[in-house]
Design a protein that fits this description.
InterPro entries: Teicoplanin_resist-assoc, VanZ-like
Number of domains: 1
Organism: Paenibacillus methanolicus
Pfam family, one: VanZ
Largest sheet: none
Order of helices and strands: HHHHHHH
Distance between the termini: 30 Å
Keywords: Membrane, Transmembrane, Transmembrane helix
Shape: globular
Protein name: Glycopeptide antibiotics resistance protein
Number of helices: 7
Number of strands: 0
Helix content: over 70%
Radius of gyration: 19 Å
């Protein structure tokens, strides 16, 4: 009987820990959407609704916004590397990596996915946010953001794996 109680307490502790990490993941997800879509302004669902309605009513508006995007891999990355002394370029380069690193760690913490799964999740979340910028007219599409964000997710997953191997 004592053994069953110990296992039950351990399972409750494990569930509480998963719930804690999931709650932290939701907070991170909110912050990610806020920074990517709203930059540093307030999150406003009404604004999203109006922007979505604009995209539905005028699909050519979204197509026009796509013309401002970067679809050439490494173009923005190269430009940012050449101008690292410019604070905005450095923030764009390293910020895109840093903001997705927690996503990779959360993939490790909350799922049983391996490396490829972590890469795929980071890529798909990044692609969704890049496309959302077009639909909601809140930024421009940049293929290099996909590359940097996916790299960030991969580095976050690698950090998670290194940490769990040591403990």
């Amino acid at each position: 009987m004592e053994n069953a109680r110990t296992v039950s307490v351990m399972n409750v502790g494990k569930s509480a820990k998963k719930l804690f990490w999931f709650a932290l993941f939701l907070i991170y997800g909110y912050g990610l959407v806020k920074v990517i879509l709203f930059k540093y302004g307030t999150v406003d669902a009404a604004v999203l609704g109006r922007q979505l309605q604009l995209a539905v009513d005028n699909p050519e508006h979204a197509l026009h916004r796509l013309s401002f995007g970067n679809f050439t891999p490494l173009e923005s990355i190269t430009r940012n590397l050449q101008r690292l002394s410019n604070r905005n370029d450095a923030v764009n380069l390293f910020g895109n990596i840093a903001i997705f690193a927690p996503l990779g760690a959360f993939v490790g913490l909350l799922t049983r996915m391996k490396w490829l799964g972590a890469i795929l999740v980071a890529f798909l979340v990044s692609l969704s946010l890049e496309c959302a910028q077009i639909v909601f007219s809140m930024g421009t599409f940049d293929v290099d953001d996909l590359i940097l964000n996916t790299l960030g997710g991969l580095l976050g997953y690698a950090g998670y794996r290194l940490f769990t191997l040591q403990h």
